[in-house]
Amino acid sequence: MSLLSSIKIRVVSNKTDWKTFYELPFKFYSHDPFWVPPLKMEERNLLNSRRNPFFNHTSIRAWLAFDRSEVVGRILAFVDDNYNDFHKSKMGFFGYFESIDSQNASNALIDHASDWLIDQGMASIRGPINLSVTNECGFLVNGFSSLPFIKMGHSLPYYPNLVENYGFELEHRLLAYLITNETVNSSELWRRLEKINERALKNNEVQIRSINMDRYKEEVGHVFRIYNEFMKDNWGFVPATKAEMYFMADILKFIIDPKMVLMAEYRGEIVGCSLGVPNINQLLPELKGKLFPFGFIKLFLKRKKISNFRLMLIGVLPEFRERGFDVLLYYETIRRSLDRGYESAELSWISEENKNLRSILEKLGARLYKMYHVYEKNLMPD
Description:
382 residues; alpha+beta; 13-stranded mixed sheet; 13 strands; 36% helix
């Protein structure tokens, strides 16, 4: 019997299948010291069509691969109507990809995902993207010897070869920069930014403040109002719905350090924001994916030991960029992180094409230390 004939693919259709789907990475990465076990409860919530408003405009299908009785891979395909409406495209996506180092197993998984997307009327397939670019996306291609930061991925080194051998081509590179307090303090650019910041904030019309947690829902509403404007030119962007923004805010509310969520005001109007999130991935390995019954307590008691954070989001309305508001936000985010005792930060992800931002970060002493590849393939016959 050939290896190909021993690979069987099954649609994920019941609770037992979904449990296997969620548990598979724990098997694949059991001996990888740089893999961070995801919180299973959060994974289930993200893929729960009754809870996650993303599914108001998205359909999905998931599969498991078996070699005889052993599960050897998984994949999820989805169609995001909002993405295709915004980009005037017929793009399908895959994510949550895991496979043994077998071209046959990988091909079988991608075959099923591709066939389903074709049945949905899609012309191309892109991935890996775990539902949206605000979650994990891309295969890691360098930087395997350090833990990923919160909501950033860590994948097996042979995955790019599997999809390239199938016929996928590189669509985009996503970059992660690491910056430490030592490199910032020794940066000549940092000293220049200090002076620029001092002059700017002397103007009473400009204010950078922390989020007001007593008015959290209102503050999230401000972020929603400006997010779709300042993000619209970014690669992979899809306009967020208000329901999606509040869903994500509810997840982050437990995690965020309010002092590291900044709002930029001009004449009392919110025109920009930055979201620095403590890197709870420093604590997750010992939880082994379980928040209850004791994981929640461990997380609460040890969160003060978190020594780094991820800058997940930063931006200002387009008309305020020329006034240097984006630079002010970067400066204030880094300065306040130093005041809060954080030792380092990951700035991610950043498009390879964003040369202006990359130049600023490198002059501040940030170093490119992880890279992720997103792939794409035409589904239509030539």
